[in-house]
Amino acid sequence: MTLMNSLKTGALRGTTVAASLLLATVVAEARDLRGWNIHVEDYPVSHGMESFVKEVSEKTDGAISGKVFHSGVLGSQPDAIEQTRLGVIDFGVFSLGPMGQVVPEANVVSLPFIFKDVDQMYKVMDGEPGKALSKGLEAKGLVALGYYDAGARSFYTSVKAINEPADVEGMKIRVMNNDLFVGMVDSLGGNATPMAFAEVYQAIKTGVVDGAENNPPSYESTNHFEVAGYYSLTQHLIIPECLCMSKKTFDSLTPEQQEIVRVAGRNSTELQRKLWQERESASMAKVSEGGVTVNEIADKAPFQAAMSPVYDQFLAQSPDLTDLVEMFKNAQ
């Protein structure tokens, strides 16, 4: 072998080794993220999360991939929130209702009538109030990438429609076991009755309670409309869900990757909201075809005014959230 051939062979081997090392480095740096989801695979939230993973993978040329674990297989929401804060789970979609136990600021969106309607909720959560809430989440180790639509809860009853607060007086209404929701019904003159969701159908049918409250897909899919034929669109609770990433995971990404993740989160949120609205429309069509009397609330101001005791008690317990509550209340 000539000297020149030896040099060429050595250079080729060196290039091959360098390329192998570079490939090994790229492979080592590739991220495979794990996502938590409580919902079944065929659900607006689930489709939104899958689109998020797909976009991130495509825009990072596979450097970041991921898998969404649906149906709560990675644990309960409280456990998943904690694991996400620790970086064991990389991202998830969490209801801001239970999130309040970890992030006090999240309790604000559980206040009755804090939002005027769903469209206003979008504007508020995408605006300055939402950014303020996101800061609270980040302080607890969670980066908010978008706020999904989880629907608006309204009253459904078996005895009569609800058009004004006086219509609630004396009614026994099933609510979730939460002081805010119990106080909401009590402030309207009703009798709040916490009970397991699985018991609601039979409780309404037998007259144990006069009604309950939930979003249209839940009202329809549980067949509660069969025993509660009045659906009054009070939209008293509009509690978003957060597409959140572990701050530990987010901070480990490059600035370019972080921007890709944020953009994918916003696009995912737009898709999920669209899919949710389609799901709600289908549910409303089904209950209407089933003979349900659906009534819009022309003026929600009297309902909102009746919530003063609920807000007063909440702020007495959490005075440091006064400014945030005012920011949400005054948002247009």
TrEMBL record:
Gene3D superfamilies assigned to the protein according to its UniProt record, in alphabetical order: Bacterial extracellular solute-binding protein, family 7
InterPro entries per record: DctP_fam (IPR018389), TRAP_DctP (IPR004682), TRAP_DctP_sf (IPR038404)
Pfam entry (one): DctP
Any single GO CC term annotated in Swiss-Prot or TrEMBL for this entry: outer membrane-bounded periplasmic space
Record keywords, A-Z: Receptor, Signal
Superkingdom of source: Bacteria
CDD domains in UniProt: PBP2_TRAP_SBP_like_3
Alphabetized GO MF terms: carbohydrate binding
Alphabetical GO biological process terms: transmembrane transport
NCBIfam families according to UniProt: dctP (TIGR00787), TRAP_S1 (NF037995)
Identification of the protein by name: Extracytoplasmic solute receptor protein YiaO
Species the sequence originates in: Roseibium album
Gene: yiaO_9
